[in-house]
Specification:
The complex is a heterodimer of chains A (377) and B (316). By secondary structure, chain A is mainly alpha-helical. Chain A has 16 helices and four strands. A four-stranded mixed beta sheet of chain A has the order 2-1-3-4, with helices on both faces. Chain B is of the alpha/beta class. Chain B has two domains: 222 residues, Rossmann fold (3-Layer(aba) Sandwich), CATH 3.40.50.300; 69 residues, Alpha-Beta Plaits (2-Layer Sandwich). The radius of gyration of chain B is 24 Å and the shape is elongated. Classes of the chains: A mainly alpha (377), B alpha/beta (316). Chains A and B meet through helix 1 and helix 9 of A and helix 2 and helix 3 of B.
C-alpha cells in the first residue's frame, strides 16, 4: 500500500507543470543568466589586473618612494609602474598607456585623464598614502615613541582588516553567493509540492482529499507516502540543479561534493516540509495558498540576497535575527560555510537549523491535518 | 427479508444557525437502488458526507453493513465505492493510472488489481482512452472515468452523488445503464440527483428531502399515489371565456385549472373519463381547440407538489 502510494505520488509530482517549471527549468534559466551576467563582470574586472601608472619621483629616498616601489612589485602587483619624468609621464597619459601620473614629492599627487574604476583606485591609494604620512608625521612631531608605535600598529590593523582570506582556501568569490541563493530558492520552491501533499489529503480542501478519506487506507499512510514521494522528487530536482551549476556552468562550490549534494537534498526536504505545513493550516483554496507560499518564498529569497546581493550583509548588521530565522538564508549559509570554512562546525550548525525546521514543519503540519472528520466540506 | 445495508437514525447536522439535517432517518436494504431526491440545499450531499464519516454531525447514529460508521471503519470503507459530485481524478496520471491508483487504495494484490482495473475500463467504455490524461477527455468521458475510479474495487455499496451533472445524453444513458448493471451484479446503490427522469428510470425506492428533512419515501408508484394529481390534461386553445373556464373547473375531480392565453391545463384528482367531460364542455361552448394531451403524474409532479414551486438557493 505504501509503495503503491509512493510510486504514484512520485509520478504525479514529476509530471506537474509547476514542478517542472519552477524547480527544473527556472533554476537552469536563472543560473545561466547569472553566469552570463557575472561572467562578463569577471572578464571586465579590473581589480585583479595591475593598473598602469607613471610615477614621477620628484624626491628620492623617501618612504613614499618605497611604498610605490613595493606596490609595483610581485606577481599580483597592484600597479604596473613606469618611472618617468614629468613630460614623458604626460605623454604616456595622453597616449592612454597609463591611467594616471603619481608625483611623489613631500606629499603624493595624482593626475588622471578620465573617470573610471582604475582612476578611483589610484585616487584611493594616493589619498591613503597622504593620510598615513600625515598621521605618522603628527605622531613624530609629538616625539612620543609609544604613541608613534600605537599609530603604526593601528594602521597595520586597518590593512589586515582589508584582507580577504579563505581558511578553506576554496572560493571566496562574492558572486558565488548568488548561486547559493539560487539553490536555496529551488529548495524553498519545493513548498509547492509540499502544499500539494497537504491539500490532496484533506477532505475539506479537495475532492481528491475527500476520495482518499473515503478509502480504507489510513490517512497517515497516504500522507507519509505522499510526503516521502515529494521529498524524493524534490531531491532529484535539487541534484539536477546543483549538477547543472557545478558541471555545466562550472561554478566553483568548493571541494566537498558529497556534503554539497547532501545539503541540497536536505534543503529540498525543508521546502517540501514548509509547503506541507502551509497547506495544512487554514481552508484557503489551493491556488491562493500556492500564491501565498510562492510570495513568501520570494520574500525569503530577497532577504537572503537572491535579488540584491548586499541585503544579507545589511541585515546581518542591523537585524541579524532575520538571517538566523530565514530558512533561505540558513540554506544558502550552509553552502557558504561548506565552501569557506575548513572545519565543518558552522556547516553542521546550519544543517541542524534545517533539521529543526523540517521537524517542526512536519510535526505541526501533521497536527493540523490529523483530523479525520470535518465540521464542513 | 433482505438485510439492511445503511441505517441512518435521527441525524442532526448544523452549520452554525443553519440546520442542514433535521432528525433525518433512512434505511436502505441490500440490492436496492435508492434515490435521494431533493432541491438544492435540501441536505442530500450533507447526508452522503455524514454517511461516509467525512463530516461530523451533532446528533444521530449511522450504521453501514450493521456496524457503526466512523472515520476508522476501514473494513466497512473497503466495501463502499464513492462517486463524488465533482470529478475527483488526478490530472497528471493517465486514465489507467488513475483507476489503478484509486483501486490500489482498496485492493492490495497487484494481479487482482489489474483484473479490476481492466474490468472497470471496459465497464465504462474507456478502452480507447486508457493512456489519455484527464485533461484530454470530454466532460462525459471524464464523468465515466470518475465512476470507474469509484467502482473498480467492486464495492458492495456504491454511492453516487449527482454523477450525471453536465453530461451529454449518450454518456448519461450509458452511466445509468452501468448503474443498473452494477446493481444486477449485487451492489446496493445510493443515488442522489435532482434529475427526476433519471431517478424515475433507475431507482427502486426513493426518498424526497427538503430543508434537511425527509418529506416522503417509497417506490415511484407509492410516491405518485401520495399526491392529489392523478391526471394532467393540456389543451391548446386560443380563446377561453371565463364562464367556460369556470364550468370546466366545476367538473367532477377537477381541482385546478391554469390558462396562459394559449394553453389550458386541467389537473384532476382521481375519477375516470375526465378528458371526455372537459372536451364536451368545450364543444358545447362551440370553441375550437388544437392538440390535446393527457398525462399521468410524473415524479416531477410529485417532487414539485411535495417540495413546492418556490425557487431555492443553490447552496448545499
Amino acid at each position: 500500500m505504501f509503495l503503491h502510494n509512493f510510486k504514484y505520488e512520485l509520478k504525479m509530482v514529476l509530471r506537474q507543470r509547476e514542478f517542472i517549471m519552477w524547480l527544473m527549468l527556472f533554476p537552469i534559466a536563472l543560473g545561466t543568466l547569472f553566469k552570463v551576467a557575472f561572467g562578463s563582470i569577471y572578464s571586465n574586472n579590473d581589480m585583479f589586473k595591475s593598473i598602469p601608472v607613471a610615477v614621477v619621483n620628484a624626491q628620492e629616498g623617501t618612504v613614499l618612494n618605497e611604498i610605490f616601489r613595493s606596490l609595483g612589485e610581485g606577481e599580483d602587483a597592484a600597479l604596473a609602474i613606469t618611472y618617468a619624468d614629468e613630460e614623458w609621464a604626460k605623454e604616456l597619459l595622453f597616449d592612454g598607456k597609463v591611467s594616471g601620473i603619481i608625483v611623489v614629492d613631500n606629499d603624493v599627487s595624482l593626475q588622471v585623464a578620465g573617470k573610471g574604476i582604475k582612476q578611483s583606485i589610484l585616487e584611493e591609494i594616493v589619498s591613503r598614502c597622504n593620510m598615513y604620512q600625515e598621521v605618522i608625521g603628527q605622531a613624530m612631531i609629538t616625539g612620543d615613541e609609544t604613541e608613534l608605535r600605537k599609530v603604526i600598529a593601528e594602521l597595520g590593523k586597518e590593512v589586515n582588516a582589508c584582507r580577504d582570506v579563505s581558511p578553506a582556501a576554496d572560493n571566496p568569490d562574492v558572486y558565488v553567493q548568488y548561486f547559493y541563493n539560487l539553490i536555496a530558492m529551488v529548495a524553498i520552491c519545493g513548498s509547492l509540492t509540499g502544499l500539494h501533499v497537504a491539500t490532496s489529503s484533506q477532505a475539506n480542501q479537495s475532492e481528491l482529499g475527500a476520495r482518499k478519506n473515503c478509502s480504507p487506507t489510513p490517512k497517515f499512510k497516504h500522507l507519509s507516502a505522499a510526503f516521502l514521494g515529494s521529498c524524493v522528487a524534490q531531491g532529484v530536482s535539487m541534484i539536477l540543479c546543483v549538477t547543472f551549476l557545478k558541471f555545466v556552468l562550472q561554478i566553483n562550490f568548493g571541494g566537498n561534493l558529497f556534503l554539497l549534494y547532501a545539503a541540497a537534498v536536505l534543503s529540498g526536504c525543508l521546502g517540501v516540509a514548509l509547503g506541507f505545513f502551509g497547506g495544512s493550516i487554514g481552508r484557503l483554496k489551493y491556488e491562493i495558498k500556492s500564491a501565498i507560499l510562492l510570495s513568501c518564498s520570494m520574500v525569503m529569497c530577497f532577504l537572503s540576497g537572491l535579488m540584491v546581493g548586499n541585503i544579507k550583509g545589511f541585515l546581518a548588521e542591523r537585524m541579524p535575527w532575520v538571517n538566523r530565522i530565514n530558512p533561505v538564508a540558513i540554506i544558502s549559509d550552509s553552502f557558504y560555510c561548506l565552501n569557506m570554512y575548513s572545519d565543518y562546525r558552522r556547516f553542521f550548525t546550519k544543517v541542524l537549523g534545517m533539521v529543526i525546521y523540517i521537524t517542526a514543519f512536519i510535526v505541526f503540519g501533521a497536527l493540523f491535518s490529523r483530523r479525520k472528520k470535518y465540521a464542513s466540506l | 427479508m433482505k438485510p439492511t445495508v445503511v441505517k441512518i437514525d435521527n441525524l442532526v447536522k448544523r452549520y452554525g444557525e443553519l440546520v442542514a439535517l433535521d432528525h433525518f432517518s433512512l434505511e436502505i436494504k441490500e440490492g436496492e437502488i435508492f434515490g435521494l431526491l431533493g432541491p438544492n440545499g435540501s441536505g442530500k450531499t450533507t447526508t452522503i458526507n455524514c454517511l461516509l464519516s467525512l463530516l461530523s454531525y451533532d446528533k444521530g447514529d449511522i450504521e453501514v453493513f450493521g456496524k457503526e460508521m466512523t472515520p476508522v471503519s476501514y473494513d466497512t470503507k473497503s466495501q463502499i465505492g464513492v462517486i463524488m459530485q465533482n470529478v475527483a481524478v488526478i490530472d497528471e496520471l493517465t486514465v489507467r493510472e488513475n483507476i489503478d491508483y484509486f483501486c490500489g487504495l482498496y485492493v492490495l494484490d497487484k494481479a487482482k488489481r489489474k483484473e479490476c482495473v481492466d474490468e472497470a475500463i471496459k465497464f465504462v467504455g474507456l478502452e480507447e482512452f486508457e493512456n489519455f490524461r484527464p485533461k484530454k477527455l470530454s466532460g462525459g468521458l471524464l464523468r465515466r472515468l470518475n465512476i470507474a475510479c469509484g467502482i473498480a474495487h467492486k464495492p458492495k455499496l456504491i454511492i453516487l452523488d449527482e454523477p450525471t451533472v453536465a453530461v451529454d445524453p449518450q454518456s448519461r444513458n450509458r452511466i445509468l445503464e452501468g448503474i443498473q448493471e452494477l446493481n444486477r451484479n449485487g451492489a446496493t446503490v445510493i443515488y442522489t440527483s435532482h434529475y427526476m427522469e433519471e431517478v424515475e428510470q433507475i431507482c427502486t425506492r426513493i426518498a424526497i428531502m427538503d430543508k434537511g428533512r425527509k418529506v416522503a419515501e417509497g417506490t415511484k408508484d407509492e410516491l405518485k399515489s401520495m399526491i392529489r394529481n392523478t391526471e394532467s390534461i393540456t389543451i391548446e386553445i386560443l380563446e377561453l371565456p371565463e364562464d367556460v373556464r369556470a364550468k370546466i373547473a366545476s367538473q367532477p375531480h377537477v381541482y385546478e385549472t391554469e390558462y396562459d392565453g394559449n394553453k389550458l391545463t386541467v389537473r384532476c384528482s382521481g375519477g375516470r373519463h375526465n378528458l371526455i367531460r372537459i372536451l364536451g364542455v368545450l364543444q358545447e361552448a362551440e370553441l375550437g381547440f388544437g392538440r390535446v394531451y393527457s398525462e399521468l403524474p410524473t415524479l416531477n409532479d410529485v417532487f414539485l407538489e411535495i417540495t413546492g414551486k418556490a425557487l431555492r438557493d443553490s447552496k448545499e
